[in-house]
Amino acid sequence: QATLQQILSTMTDADVAAVFDYLSGPLQVANPTGSNQFMYYSVECNESASFQAYERTIETALELEIPELGLNTVASLGQIFAVCEIWPGGHAPGYANLPVTSEIPTLIFAGTYDMQTPLSWNKQAFVSLPNSGLIIAPMSGHGVLTYHQACATQIADDFMNDPGYLPDDSCVADYYPQWALPDAS
After folding, report:
1. Beta bridge pairs of residue 108
2. What SS3 class is residue 36?
3. Which of 105, 154, 155, 169 could bond to 163 as cystine, CB 3.0-4.6 Å?
4. By C-alpha distance, which of 134, 135, 133, 124 is closest to 100?
């Protein structure tokens, strides 16, 4: 908090206005494939892959309602694990993998087909963050905003406007698949 206040004290009124203008616009979706690869692998290998196992990624994919939808992601994550085997970035200390606890209101978006941040991790965060809300987005991978932009943006905006209450998430129901089976004849 002190560091943030120190940074804020150096900002001009125009700087603060620019930040608020940016934040009042539509939420921006991060695109890791468009980021600098050196930075991406330095962070991914140090802070993420070092606490995961490729075998568990495969198990997670096989537990999906439609496992075949996770196969492409499993293959691409395999490439990340392979790069991290030889990446010179080191590994984060073990305490970096401990569950985060906080009283700050937190909104957790979870995609049922997220192979990078499995649903089980989101549920664990929900338990360790007592003032959190968990929104499970069906048929979504990593980055729920990418798959359900209008719905997720509305939920996020509502939460930001009133973080003390879980926003209406009924729009996610529109994304559950409606299966059409062939006629029995």
Report:
1. 134
2. coil
3. 105
4. 124
pTM: 0.61
Exposed, middle or buried: residue 132 (CB in 10 Å: 0-12, 13-18, 19+)?
A: middle
* Under 8 Å between Cβ of 174 and 137: no
Q: pLDDT tens digits for 29-85?
A: 444 455 577 888 888 888 888 888 888 888 888 888 777 777 777 888 888 888 898
Burial class (CB in 10 A: 0-12, 13-18, 19+), 5: exposed
**CA–CA dist 114, 18 (Å, integer):** 33
Distance CA 148, CA 158 (A): 15
Are the C-beta atoms of 106 and 129 separated by less than 8 Å? yes
CA distances from 166 to 132, 147, 155 (A): 8, 21, 9
Identify the bridge partners of residue 110 per DSSP, sorted by sequence position. 136
Q: Roughly how many angstroms between the first and final C-alpha of the chain, as a whole number?
A: 67
SS3 136: strand
Query: Is the distance from CB of 113 to CB of 70 less than 8 angstroms?
Result: yes
Tally of CB atoms within 10 A around 61: 21
- Comparing C-alpha atoms, which of 169, 117, 112, 163 is closest to residue 138? 112
Q: Which amino acid is at 57?
A: T
